[in-house]
Amino acid sequence: MAVTLIFGGTSEGRLAAEKEKDALVCVATEYGASLLPPGTNCHIGRLDRNEMLEFIRTLRPGRVIDATHPYAVKATDNIRACCTELDIPYERISRPSVSGSWSTLVRHAKSAEHAAHLLTETGGNILLTTGSQTLSTYAATIPAERLWVRVLPTRAALEFCELAGIHPSHIIAMQGPFSPELNGALYDHFNIHVMVTKDSGSAGGLEEKVLPALAREMDVIVIDRPDANQGDPQQ
């Protein structure tokens, strides 16, 4: 039986790896590999389109499961294109979006740049929960003393924080998702007035972040998911 190739690094990818008896999981980092089920066969390292094409051609999997992050549009484009070229079955697993009654109570942004612009219209401390790679976008617009960030506890994430000029005392390095109680405690402890998040769905703890923020009458900005057909947004 041909192997199933899974592009993961998400909770959906880990679940797919648990279900497939003969699978190879591709993750970008050692940290992503550490979150996989014990004994999972994995490839560690980022692949550009040409590298991905050669990797899949050599492996010749029976099918490819794309369980990458909803915002990893370029990765999805590359995986789908490679499977089409090699005539290999492609399956996209995407976490469902969460749209509760609170959806009309938050502000929606199309990108990190748009969110940074919206932040200029707010006051008080800001908590960014949108990852480390776009921190410089916010730091270029918002004074450093207003910015708190929650990022993964990895060297790469901390390096992005340093490059963006984030104060060390404003860095919360933790692996989520988190409970509403913990999120609320962080908002209170750091006197947060504005929280920025991606639409990470239930698996990413979206409501657990949004609801305690609204209960505290905080401003909330949600960066909507990119259209998979509109190119590669910033991750």
From TrEMBL:
Its EC number is 1.3.1.54. It comes from the Bacteria. Keywords: Oxidoreductase. This is Precorrin-6A reductase. It comes from Aristaeella hokkaidonensis. The gene is cobK.
